[in-house]
Design brief:
By secondary structure, this protein is α+β, with helices and mostly antiparallel strands. The two termini are 23 Å apart. The protein has 3 helices and 5 strands; from the N terminus they run E-E-H-E-E-H-H-E. Helix 2 packs antiparallel against helix 3.
Protein backbone atom coordinates (compact mmCIF):
# COMPACT_ATOMS: atom_id res chain seq x y z
CA UNK A 1 0.00 0.00 0.00
CA UNK A 2 1.46 3.31 -1.12
CA UNK A 3 1.63 6.20 1.30
CA UNK A 4 1.68 9.85 0.28
CA UNK A 5 3.98 11.96 2.46
CA UNK A 6 4.17 15.75 2.40
CA UNK A 7 6.04 18.22 4.57
CA UNK A 8 4.32 21.38 5.73
CA UNK A 9 4.36 24.26 8.19
CA UNK A 10 1.62 24.89 10.75
CA UNK A 11 0.10 28.33 10.18
CA UNK A 12 -2.67 28.14 12.74
CA UNK A 13 -3.75 25.93 15.64
CA UNK A 14 -7.22 26.43 17.11
CA UNK A 15 -7.62 23.79 19.82
CA UNK A 16 -6.12 21.07 17.63
CA UNK A 17 -7.70 22.23 14.36
CA UNK A 18 -4.61 22.88 12.29
CA UNK A 19 -4.07 24.87 9.12
CA UNK A 20 -0.95 23.55 7.41
CA UNK A 21 0.81 25.11 4.43
CA UNK A 22 2.26 22.52 2.05
CA UNK A 23 4.65 23.51 -0.76
CA UNK A 24 3.58 22.72 -4.32
CA UNK A 25 5.06 19.77 -6.22
CA UNK A 26 8.41 20.12 -7.89
CA UNK A 27 6.66 19.53 -11.24
CA UNK A 28 5.03 22.96 -10.97
CA UNK A 29 8.43 24.63 -11.29
CA UNK A 30 9.02 23.06 -14.71
CA UNK A 31 5.50 23.73 -16.01
CA UNK A 32 5.25 26.13 -18.97
CA UNK A 33 2.04 27.64 -17.59
CA UNK A 34 3.35 28.38 -14.11
CA UNK A 35 3.29 32.16 -14.67
CA UNK A 36 -0.36 32.26 -15.68
CA UNK A 37 -1.60 29.36 -13.57
CA UNK A 38 -4.33 30.07 -11.03
CA UNK A 39 -2.75 27.74 -8.49
CA UNK A 40 -1.15 29.20 -5.40
CA UNK A 41 2.43 28.71 -4.38
CA UNK A 42 1.34 26.69 -1.36
CA UNK A 43 -1.65 24.50 -0.63
CA UNK A 44 -3.49 25.01 2.66
CA UNK A 45 -4.76 21.86 4.38
CA UNK A 46 -7.07 21.88 7.39
CA UNK A 47 -7.03 18.89 9.72
CA UNK A 48 -7.27 17.87 13.36
CA UNK A 49 -4.51 16.64 15.64
CA UNK A 50 -4.59 16.05 19.38
CA UNK A 51 -0.79 16.33 19.56
CA UNK A 52 0.89 19.39 21.06
CA UNK A 53 1.72 21.16 17.80
CA UNK A 54 2.45 24.88 17.77
CA UNK A 55 2.27 27.54 15.06
CA UNK A 56 5.47 27.48 13.02
CA UNK A 57 6.21 23.80 13.68
CA UNK A 58 7.27 21.68 10.72
CA UNK A 59 5.06 18.62 10.29
CA UNK A 60 4.81 15.57 8.08
CA UNK A 61 1.40 14.69 6.66
CA UNK A 62 0.80 11.05 5.77
CA UNK A 63 -2.13 9.45 4.01
CA UNK A 64 -2.77 6.41 1.87
CA UNK A 65 -2.73 7.15 -1.85
CA UNK A 66 -5.81 4.95 -2.26
CA UNK A 67 -7.76 7.30 0.04
CA UNK A 68 -6.77 10.32 -2.04
CA UNK A 69 -7.79 8.52 -5.23
CA UNK A 70 -11.12 7.40 -3.74
CA UNK A 71 -12.08 10.87 -2.52
CA UNK A 72 -10.92 12.48 -5.77
CA UNK A 73 -13.29 10.15 -7.63
CA UNK A 74 -16.15 11.35 -5.46
CA UNK A 75 -15.34 14.99 -6.09
CA UNK A 76 -14.69 14.79 -9.83
CA UNK A 77 -16.69 11.82 -11.14
CA UNK A 78 -19.86 11.89 -9.02
CA UNK A 79 -21.08 15.29 -10.33
CA UNK A 80 -20.51 14.18 -13.94
CA UNK A 81 -22.42 10.93 -13.38
CA UNK A 82 -25.26 12.80 -11.70
CA UNK A 83 -25.45 15.30 -14.60
CA UNK A 84 -25.68 12.44 -17.09
CA UNK A 85 -28.43 10.79 -15.04
CA UNK A 86 -30.24 14.12 -14.83
CA UNK A 87 -30.05 14.48 -18.61
CA UNK A 88 -31.25 10.95 -19.39
CA UNK A 89 -34.16 10.52 -16.96
CA UNK A 90 -36.53 13.18 -18.38
CA UNK A 91 -35.92 11.87 -21.89
CA UNK A 92 -36.80 8.34 -20.79
CA UNK A 93 -39.87 9.03 -18.69
CA UNK A 94 -41.33 12.31 -19.96
CA UNK A 95 -40.66 12.14 -23.69
CA UNK A 96 -44.26 11.98 -24.98
CA UNK A 97 -46.04 13.97 -22.26
CA UNK A 98 -46.35 17.25 -24.16
CA UNK A 99 -44.16 19.15 -21.72
CA UNK A 100 -41.11 21.10 -22.90
CA UNK A 101 -38.52 18.30 -22.67
CA UNK A 102 -35.56 20.70 -22.97
CA UNK A 103 -36.68 22.73 -19.96
CA UNK A 104 -37.39 19.58 -17.94
CA UNK A 105 -33.95 18.22 -18.86
CA UNK A 106 -32.26 21.45 -17.76
CA UNK A 107 -34.15 21.44 -14.44
CA UNK A 108 -33.33 17.76 -13.89
CA UNK A 109 -29.63 18.38 -14.56
CA UNK A 110 -29.58 21.26 -12.07
CA UNK A 111 -31.37 19.15 -9.43
CA UNK A 112 -29.08 16.14 -9.85
CA UNK A 113 -26.00 18.39 -9.85
CA UNK A 114 -27.18 19.93 -6.56
CA UNK A 115 -27.77 16.44 -5.13
CA UNK A 116 -24.17 15.52 -6.01
CA UNK A 117 -22.92 18.52 -4.00
CA UNK A 118 -25.07 17.50 -1.03
CA UNK A 119 -23.60 13.99 -1.18
CA UNK A 120 -20.03 15.36 -1.43
CA UNK A 121 -20.67 17.72 1.50
CA UNK A 122 -21.88 14.74 3.57
CA UNK A 123 -18.74 12.80 2.68
CA UNK A 124 -16.67 15.86 3.64
CA UNK A 125 -18.36 16.02 7.07
CA UNK A 126 -17.57 12.34 7.63
CA UNK A 127 -13.95 12.96 6.69
CA UNK A 128 -13.73 15.79 9.21
CA UNK A 129 -14.60 13.29 11.96
CA UNK A 130 -12.20 10.61 10.70
CA UNK A 131 -8.45 10.94 10.64
CA UNK A 132 -7.66 10.24 7.00
CA UNK A 133 -4.41 12.18 7.28
CA UNK A 134 -1.91 11.58 10.07
CA UNK A 135 0.21 14.43 11.37
CA UNK A 136 3.68 14.07 12.89
CA UNK A 137 5.87 16.89 14.14
CA UNK A 138 9.40 16.86 12.76
Amino acid sequence: MTTMIKEGTVLENKNGHLTVSVARNEACGACAAKGSCGQKEDTLIELFSSDDIKVGDKVILETRSSDITKYSMYVYVLPVVMIVIGAILPNLFLKNTGYDINLLTLLSIIIFFAISFIIIKGIDKNLANNSVMKVRRI
